[in-house]
Amino acid sequence: MSSNQYWNRETSERAQYSQDKQVTQPANIICLTDKNDDANRKLYDGELPEGAKILTVASKFDDFEIKELKEANANVVFVSHPKAREPLAKLLEEIPSIKWVHSRSAGVDFISSETLANSNVYLTNAKGCFSSTLAEYTMMAISYFAKDLPRLLKQKQDKNWEKYPVEEIRGATLGVVGYGDIGRAAAKLSKAYGMKVIALRRNPDNSKDDPICDVVYKNSKESLHQLMSESDYILCAAPLTPETKNMFDAAAFSKAKPNSVFINVGRGPIVDEMALIGALKNGLIKGAALDVFAVEPLPIESELWDMPNLLASPHNMDMTKTFMHEATQFFIDENLPRFLREEPLLNQCDKAAGY
């Protein structure tokens, strides 16, 4: 069931599996989730595809009846609990019949472990369910700084009619670090604004014929520094892995183009926050827009709260009213039928790479 096919809620055709093909294996599902998670209600209580059934729903390893799950030939784990790393690793160790693990999130850093990386299970995620709204946030953050919205709001509050010059987005350069589904969605919108797009990714050949991306660099420290020096806006949309942790450090920010803006929709620990604070204080960059932080919720004592040139949001810029419901529905409607028919699964992750 190996595949490099990926899902996108805007562009992918639905139900592109062999609907006339009979089910060839069951899907006996362990839900490593919160029983009260309303976004999973259709999974817990709804109608599943023929051949699929829920065996149990729990969030702690001790709440699983391992003997019963073995006897029931549990072979699928659906994960949406934020503290699932250790329980999942133990389930994989105890239940050898598990073939497939699916993350309701796009990121899989919260479940990554040596046990998972070294297993033979398929790992899939909800990539493609959240990209559009994060791309919209990226353009909002760019406009926030280009048009100086803080000043605009302050002048309105003060009833101050004072004209001031603004920056044009057209012609500016967006540097995308992590040119996957989210990064490319942001690049697509930026192109509509007339921006140039440069990108950094592990496999540049995957974008060699991409009409949206003008330049693609192979991921390295030198290439990151080059991208920082060329970009008016730097978007981090990378996954959190041992290789990406703290990749935006003091050295990276020291290479930033003057008056540039840093935007992070990836994961907080990818950024050395003390280095970012220093860059904001010292004027190495004009500003930053962060939807993710190294520690969440952001601690009250963090200096970031008081940074006048920081736009901060509580990790909710992909949080539409239906986003998690749609991610669960993707599992039910798209990947479960494929598993049941032993067809290639969508959104397969590289367990060793961590995304």
UniProtKB/TrEMBL annotation:
Residue segments, region Disordered: 1-21
Record carries keyword NAD: yes
Xref: PROSITE patterns: D_2_HYDROXYACID_DH_3
MF annotations from Gene Ontology: NAD binding; oxidoreductase activity, acting on the CH-OH group of donors, NAD or NADP as acceptor
Protein keywords: NAD, Oxidoreductase
Domain of life: Eukaryota
UniProt cross-references to InterPro entries, sorted A to Z: D-isomer_DH_CS (IPR029753), D-isomer_DH_NAD-bd (IPR006140), NAD(P)-bd_dom_sf (IPR036291)
CDD domains in alphabetical order: 2-Hacid_dh_1
Entry keyword Signal: no
Start and end residues of each D-isomer specific 2-hydroxyacid dehydrogenase NAD-binding domain: 141-315
SUPFAM superfamilies: Formate/glycerate dehydrogenase catalytic domain-like, NAD(P)-binding Rossmann-fold domains
Stretches that traverse the bilayer: none
Protein name: D-isomer specific 2-hydroxyacid dehydrogenase NAD-binding domain-containing protein
Lineage start: Eukaryota, Sar, Stramenopiles, Ochrophyta, Bacillariophyta
